[in-house]
Description:
Layout: H1 6-10, H2 12-16, H3 37-48, H4 50-74, H5 83-111
Amino acid sequence: MTIVIAADITVPLPQSMGMKPFFKPRMDATANANGSSAWHRMIRLWKDNKELFDNEYHRRSVIEAVIGAEKQRLGHTLFSKRDDLQDKELRLKNICYNLLVLNKMKASFLLGEPLLNPVKAS
């Protein structure tokens, strides 16, 4: 049985593409990652400055929530075959989603309703 460490798979790929890997590590995670400097920096931030780490992680979760809402509303499939056309199609989906959100905000403002309905305590 081969045990695969998350850092071996999830860190080098985003780092090679110029992205910063960011996810909540397990409680027993260590900064040792067989030479992955991105993993080491992420763990050091998590251990040394939890508040800053949580703020950054919350930013990621908000972005993922928006992407999920967009996919739920407009679908997750791109119909174009060429990469350049898929890029254009995705940008158009983003514009459409933003227009939907702006339209909802405008309607809420004109009707004098709150943007978000308050959650009722149970």
